[in-house]
Amino acid sequence: LQITLFGESAGAASVTAHFFAPGSFRYFRRAVLMSGTIANSWAIKEKDMALQMSMFLAKKLNCTLGQGKNLDVNLTAQCIRQAPAAEIQKAADAVAVEQILPMTFPFVPVEEDEHFFKGNLFTKLKMRDFIKDISVLIGSVKDEGTYWLPYYFLSPKMGFQFNHTISADDPSNRALINREQYKSSIQSFIPYFDDSQLVKHALLHAYEEMSESKNPQEKLRDGVARFIGDFFFTCSLIEFADILADNIHGSVYMYYFTKRSSANPWPKWMGVMHGYEIEYVFGQPFRHSHLYPQSQIDSERRFSEKIMKYWTTFAAEGVPRPQWPKYNKVTRKAFVLNDKITGTTHQIDVDVHGKSCSLLSEVQAVINNSKCSSKFETFHCMSSTSSLKCKSFIRLRC
């Protein structure tokens, strides 16, 4: 079979889950991974935590039948299945809201099982026990982190409120945060690093300098966005690409998407946002041309046509275009998807976000050396019938 699996964000995480599922191997030969893998910290949970989240959901639905060793899991699951779908969704949303750490999601794949992974995913990753007869097209967008800011950091303490009733580019929607708001935003992620003050100071200093802006408040704003994009998407995606390039029999091709859609309704400072490359893959400038400024519709269509051509050529032939270099972890070449591709030239970038990814790798090494666990995730949670508070989330690789 010559099936190509294709997904973006959680979809890409789902695609890569099949890389570790022996029962799936014979059904596909190529994969397109856009801004996500199953190894991203938000994409998977350990068994104990998944059960805890499920029981918290069950309590909200009045479905906990028994306690502790006397818990009847089958009856609890049956009760949940019988609940109206809208009530399940409402309860699941409440579970998500009550998790205090940003960028954590309660209901995601479980790292170990006997049916799909047939083992532990991270043990398999460590042992390089995954599909080998495959070629992969993988990449990220320039500003992965900005999408999440109005959702997780809209409080005055953080300063990323967005008023959709006025122009997206109104001055009040520029999120010009001050230093205290910058510190508060970065602080919210420090539990991911075992509450290390050393790490906190390193991140505060480094990400303040990531932006090319000369405006101090814009630099702070852009620093928070860049950290989110690096830590939760770009750097772990590149690490995954490195592993694939060293181990699969096929080829890896990386892209770096830097074109902002003229139909993007968010403020211009948010840049090339997470998820907004999808519209070009599905030909939106052709299907919904009214969403684009008419002065730009021709160029938008040419760009979309190129993207569709690359994706389908890769699916059919295993190579997106002849000038696209194969990826390896030494040169780390990425084909840049910008307006140049509609003409006769193209751009190759090397080691995308390499400086900040190196920093995060060093930070992770410090945490691993100071407090190591055989688990990929360690949660310290307090739960009751009405609330769940996860105080610490440590992402460890040992």
TrEMBL record:
InterPro entries per the UniProt record, alphabetical: AB_hydrolase_fold (IPR029058), AChE-related_enzymes (IPR050654), CarbesteraseB (IPR002018), Cholinesterase (IPR000997)
Source superkingdom: Eukaryota
Family as reported in the entry's similarity comment: Belongs to the type-B carboxylesterase/lipase family.
Keyword Hydrolase: yes
Membrane-spanning ranges: none
Gene Ontology MF annotations: acetylcholinesterase activity
GO biological process, one term: acetylcholine catabolic process
A Pfam family matched in the record: COesterase
Protein name in the entry: Acetylcholinesterase
Alphabetized UniProt keyword annotations: Disulfide bond, Hydrolase, Serine esterase
Carboxylesterase type B domain segment(s): 2-342
Example of a GO cellular component annotation carried by this entry: extracellular space
Active site: 9, 144, 274
